[in-house]
Amino acid sequence: MPTTIDEVLALIRQLPTAAAVARVQEASALRLRELDKAAFAGIMPGRKARITDSLRPALLRGLTGTVQERNRTGTRAGFILDEESTQRLRTHPRNGEPGKPRYRIPEDTKRFRLPGSGIPVSCLELTED
Asked: pTM to 2 decimals?
C-alpha cells in the first residue's frame, strides 16, 4: 500500500531538527524540477506556441509564435512572435505611452523576437504545427 500524503506530512511534523526538514525541502525541490522538466519537455525550438494567461505583463498573453532556444536550466525559452501577434503587440493600447512604447517594433518588422531572458516555459502552450 503506497504512503499517503497525510502520512508524509505527519512524518515531516515529527522531524527533530531544522536540518532534517531542510533535507526534505531539498528533495521536494529536486522532484519539482524533475516534474517540470518532464511536463515541458515538448517545448522545443521550432515548435509553435501560445503565451498563456499566467504570464506578466498581461499584454503578451495570447500572443503566438515560435519557440527558440531554451536557457541553460531549461526553464525559459526565447520566443519570436508570428506576423499577426507582432502587429497586435505593435498596436496594443497598453504597450506604453504614445510615442514611447514598451516594446518598440519597427513598422517593417514582420516577426518580433521578445527581448529579455525569454518566456518561462510554464507560460507556453504548444499549438498545432
From this structure: 0.76
Angle (nearest 5°) at CA 103 between 56 and 75: 45
- Kindly report, residue by residue over 16-42, the tens digit of the pLDDT: 999 999 999 999 999 988 888 888 889
Instruction: Give one DSSP letter per residue of the chain, joined into a string.
Output: -PPPHHHHHHHHHT--SHHHHHHHHHHHHHHHHHHHHHHTTT--TT-EEEE-TT-SSGGGTT-EEEEEEE-TTSSEEEEEE-HHHHHHHHH-TTSSBTTB-SS---TT-SSPBPPSS-EEGGGEEE---
β-strand 76-81 against 48-51: which pairing, if any?
unpaired
Which candidate, 72, 68, 113, places its Cα nearest to that of 89?
113
Name which residue leads in pLDDT, 100 or 81.
Answer: 81
For residue 1, count CB atoms less than 10 angstroms from its CB and return exposed for 0-12, middle for 13-18, buried for 19 or more.
Answer: exposed
Residues 92 and 101: their CA atoms lie apart, in Å, by: 9
Chain centroid offset of residue 25 CA: 23
Pairing of strands 119-120, 76-81: antiparallel
